[in-house]
Automatic annotation (TrEMBL):
The keyword Transport applies. Keywords: Cell membrane, Membrane, Transmembrane, Transmembrane helix, Transport. Pfam families: BPD_transp_1. Residues 68-255 form the ABC transmembrane type-1 domain. It is a multi-pass membrane protein. This is ABC transmembrane type-1 domain-containing protein. It comes from Pseudonocardia kongjuensis. The chain crosses the membrane at residues 7-26, 75-94, 106-124, 130-154, 175-200, 233-255. It is found in: Cell membrane. SUPFAM superfamilies: MetI-like (SSF161098).
Length: 274
């Protein structure tokens, strides 16, 4: 338990240091550039606004967290779909020598398309709401999962494959004993990238939707009043950043815990580890 606890303390300390550095740079830029409140408010003014009341009488922080949950919900669905789609395509890419080379350029092309350009067609096709945001999150996050699964399966040592063949193990057994654990290991290492891109996709899908719900809608609404009320937009931006980081680390911890539990149930025949 000391290892995970020490890692958690190190991550928390690192977050505190980064936050202090950002605050110092913020105030330094404001001081050196001579920016007034309407262009860049003080950090304490932004933090104080979290306790202010919105026009509906709701506390600003509660209002922002409620809208963040709408975005996070779509991002979580997108992460699950991205892992499922990425795993299936990764297995096909690695296990089918003919299909893999022809499929990978299409996957790279889908990843090269700008996400901002994909959002309006998705909103038009599926309407504003969680469906379009989930599809956008899936499209944004599935490619790292494809690469991780394909690489994990491809890097299984030939000696281990030959050992299972010598035992007369069927191909299905080779997949569950060798290839699936390798794919899980690589996927758990890539899950932060998947989660980060999926969250970004969910945020971008809300921009052209015109909906009132979601953290991106709050950022757009707050930006219209920035010239005389800049604090709401900075509060929304802080919540977006903090929510994205928290989601990435939470999903990473859950997937790694699930991968460790799955790997404990897989046992190689004697001598297969060598």
């Amino acid at each position: 338990m000391r290892g995970p606890r020490r890692d958690a303390v190190a991550v928390a300390a690192g977050c505190v240091v980064v936050a202090l550095v950002v605050v110092a740079l913020w105030e330094l830029v404001k001081l050196v550039a001579g920016l007034d409140r309407t262009r860049l408010p003080h950090v304490w003014e932004v933090l104080a606004h979290f306790g202010a009341r919105t026009s509906q009488g709701e506390i600003e922080l509660v209002f922002l967290l409620g809208n963040l949950w709408v975005t996070v919900r779509s991002a979580v669905f997108g992460i699950l779909c991205a892992l499922l789609v990425g795993t299936a395509l990764g297995v096909l890419t690695a296990k089918r020598p003919v299909l893999g080379p022809s499929l990978m350029p299409l996957l790279v092309l889908s990843r090269a398309l700008p996400l901002v350009a994909l959002a309006p067609p998705l909103v038009i096709l599926f309407g504003p709401g969680w469906v379009a945001a989930t599809i956008m999150a899936t499209l944004a996050g599935f490619f790292p999962a494809v690469v991780a699964v394909a690489r994990g399966i491809g890097e299984v040592p030939v000696a281990q494959r030959e050992l299972l063949d010598s035992f007369g193990a069927p191909r299905r057994r080779q997949f569950t004993v060798l290839e699936l654990p390798a794919a899980l290991t690589h996927t758990s290492a890539a899950i932060r990238t998947v989660a980060a891109w999926a969250f970004l996709g969910a945020v971008l899908a809300e921009l052209p939707s015109g909906t009132q719900d979601g953290i991106a809608a709050v950022v757009l609404a707050a930006s219209q009043y920035y010239s005389y009320r800049p604090e709401p937009m900075w509060c929304a931006a802080i919540v977006v950043a903090g929510g994205g980081v928290a989601l990435v680390y939470l999903v990473s911890w859950l997937v790694r815990a699930a991968a460790r539990a799955a790997l404990r149930t897989t046992h190689l025949p004697a001598g297969a580890e060598s």
